[in-house]
Design goal:
It is built from ten helices and eleven strands. By secondary structure, the chain is an alpha/beta fold.
Length: 342
């Protein structure tokens, strides 16, 4: 079949790129012709790029990062840019929506955009794979406006408990919770490892508290291993790497001795590369992470002020990770089979 993917695909964000790229790779492995629908509201695209340039106040290094992302985006097989989703009507046998927080109707970046709920594609088959409503509350009045669009989907899955609760309330059907699409393909094949000879502790984190920084510095001192930050600049880290591609970003995880992160995909890639890690959590992020942590039974990776940063016995997790991944494989394959059958 000819399949389009509508998600957050070209932001200067490691997780956003890799979730879109992974969905595309998974569908292509099933033998389908796949392209990314290059849809984005013009104002949102401008704000996103401006933020990427200003990040950390490191204009030159951020410019290098943007250039590397633009090179990676060429691998996406994207359509021409278009801010009118209706122009893609009847172009595809099916359109996949997700993953990421494309259903977060309170997102400060793009706001309330019904295109991510399928507005404009009334005659096209639609499948939702692991989208999230983010921090949206189930009693949010704006949700009433998306109900008719969700009811038009042929199959819906989500990535967290809150999104499942909202989708069930709107559609009357409880959707499957599936893993992030990065669990569906082998990420290590894409890794470009950094040319760092000595061991390092990787830091991929944002909005850190003083106690988080103190814990990382103390751990680094005790282990006599340097701290290396990717994506964000921190003066207290020994080295900082901002201008890297998504594939180099994976390489930093693959080669790290230990990982500290506060990010959703930072936690995921720690698991995918089988690294020992600690996650710094807040209530908002816990809502995003909770199902993943519950499913793999790794709540002990959350920093609580007394964490001992113990090693993870991944031999005990392999089956859980495989079972979790298989939920995603089964959902996609079943949904596509149902669409193909007369």
């Amino acid at each position: 079949m000819k399949i389009g993917i509508l998600t957050f695909h070209d932001g200067i964000n490691f997780g956003a790129f890799l979730q879109a790229y992974s969905t595309k790779q998974k569908l292509e492995l099933l033998g389908h012709q796949v392209e990314i629908i290059n849809y984005k509201d013009t104002w949102f695209a401008f704000k996103e790029l401006a933020y990427a340039f200003r990040m950390n106040g490191k204009f030159v290094k951020n410019a290098k990062k943007i250039w590397k992302f633009r090179s990676a985006h060429k691998l996406m097989d994207m359509t021409k840019p278009n801010s009118d989703l209706a122009s893609f009507e009847d172009k595809y046998d099916v359109v996949f929506f997700g993953s990421d927080e494309i259903w977060n109707i309170n997102n400060l970046g793009f706001g309330y955009d019904l295109s991510y709920f399928g507005k404009g594609l009334r005659n096209t088959k639609k499948i939702a794979y692991a989208p999230s409503f983010g921090s949206t509350k189930s009693d949010d009045e704006k949700l009433s406006l998306v109900k008719e669009y969700l009811l038009d989907f042929d199959a819906i899955s989500v990535r967290d408990n809150n999104s499942q609760k909202i989708a069930e309330k709107l559609t009357g059907t409880k959707p499957t919770i599936v893993p992030d699409p990065t669990f569906l393909v082998d990420q290590l094949n894409w890794a470009v490892e950094p040319e760092i000879e000595e061991e390092y502790i990787l830091v991929y984190a944002y909005v850190l508290k003083p106690e988080h920084i103190k814990a990382m510095k103390q751990f680094s001192k005790e282990k006599k291993i340097k701290l290396v930050s990717v994506g964000f600049y921190y003066s207290w880290c020994d080295e900082n790497y901002l201008g890297i591609s998504p594939f180099e970003w994976i390489g930093f995880f693959k080669k790290a001795k230990y990982v500290f992160t506060s990010m959703f995909h930072g936690t995921i890639y720690s698991i995918l590369t089988r690294r020992n890690f600690t996650t710094f959590m807040d209530p908002y992020r816990l809502q995003k992470f909770s199902y993943l942590l519950d499913t793999l039974d790794i709540h002990d990776r959350i920093f609580d002020g007394n964490s001992r940063f113990e090693s993870i016995d991944y031999s005990m997790l392999e089956k859980k990770i495989a079972d979790y991944s298989n939920i995603g494989h089964k959902f996609i394959e079943t949904a596509l089979q149902n669409i193909q059958e007369p």
